[in-house]
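in:
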């Protein structure tokens, strides 16, 4: 089968022939239809410091996908050939304290699809049945392909109550854009998104942001004044990993405000801990999705009319992966999809 492989310990990805994945007794074999390009995939392609420390070559990359089940292991009873499925990309041990307590998203031994084991940028992928999500209601294939990052957005956005709250989102990348749509759909009063890309800020407005600020020209405090907010934001969703973004968010939160952090900083940086303490601000780190409560929430949000179509701005054949990755790395659009049937 064809697969997009990190074949060598150097920048680049290679579309080559590899063996089809094996299917164990508890596994599901899936014919991949479409995949989404993630920031993790960009790191691996660029072969940056994180990738060099994390990735063992050769490796089939990719973890965002939708596909059709073509075979199941002998112990799989609730998934059948023909089912349309996506996959939870975090494979957990099932034996640690958190796994045994039902907190699988907190497993310390998590292995990432397309990071610690062969992934989904291929014609076929094999996953344990426990990691397979069957789409039992109709869903657009492009949207189904990005359930993984959509789940990150949902997990972050729904970490704290949003009804009638004023929400600040720093970072209008694809997950920040989806978080804006979720926050508005979930009943937030004001949704403010910040970035430095006017193209992405335009997307934020389409996805539900009442105010989209270019922070290279306008401050968050200016945005507060424009909206008539007197005490600051109630909920912050930090999606950028940018030190200045978090510092500005903290400075513009109300007393007792709550911040969920998904953006991953490249290195340590200082923040105003005195402000966090005296303003009694809650900080919560987010990684991945709650298994599988977030997946239920994603499905229900879509059934309830949440429209993610504007977040998908690039569609390519898998054969045109170089152009697709260049698009995704450009920092101006939303999600980029690879079609494995074209």
């Amino acid at each position: 089968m064809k697969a997009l492989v990190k074949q060598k310990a150097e920048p680049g990805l290679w579309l080559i022939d590899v063996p089809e994945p094996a299917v164990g007794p508890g596994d599901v074999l899936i014919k991949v239809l479409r995949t989404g390009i993630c920031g993790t995939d960009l790191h691996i392609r660029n072969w940056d410091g994180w990738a060099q420390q994390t990735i063992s070559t050769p490796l089939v990359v990719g973890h965002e996908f939708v596909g059709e089940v073509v075979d199941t292991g002998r112990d799989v009873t609730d998934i059948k050939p023909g089912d349309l499925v996506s996959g939870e990309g975090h494979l957990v041990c099932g034996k640690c304290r958190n796994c045994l307590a039902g907190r699988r998203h907190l497993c310390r031994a998590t292995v990432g699809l397309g990071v610690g084991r062969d992934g989904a940028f291929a014609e076929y992928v094999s996953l344990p049945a426990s990691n397979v999500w069957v789409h039992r209601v109709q869903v657009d294939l492009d949207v189904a392909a990005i359930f993984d990052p959509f789940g990150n957005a949902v997990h972050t956005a729904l970490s704290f109550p949003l009804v009638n709250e004023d929400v600040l989102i720093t970072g209008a990348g694809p997950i920040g854009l989806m978080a804006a749509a979720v926050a508005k759909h979930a009943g937030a009063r004001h949704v403010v998104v910040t970035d430095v890309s006017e193209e992405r800020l335009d997307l934020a407005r389409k996805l539900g942001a009442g105010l989209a600020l270019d922070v290279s020209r306008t401050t968050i405090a200016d945005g507060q004044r424009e909206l008539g907010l007197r005490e600051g934001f109630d909920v912050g969703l930090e999606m950028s990993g940018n030190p200045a973004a978090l510092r500005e968010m903290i400075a513009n939160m109300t007393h007792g405000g709550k911040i969920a952090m998904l953006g991953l900083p490249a290195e340590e940086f200082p923040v105003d801990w005195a402000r966090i303490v005296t303003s009694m601000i809650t900080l919560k780190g987010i990684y991945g999705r709650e298994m599988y409560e977030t997946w239920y929430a994603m499905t229900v949000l879509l059934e309830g009319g949440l429209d993610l179509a504007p977040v998908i701005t690039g569609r390519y054949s898998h054969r045109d992966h170089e152009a697709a990755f260049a698009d995704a790395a450009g920092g101006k659009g939303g999600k980029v999809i690879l079609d494995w049937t074209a």
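note: The chain has two domains: 2-146+308-339, 153-285.
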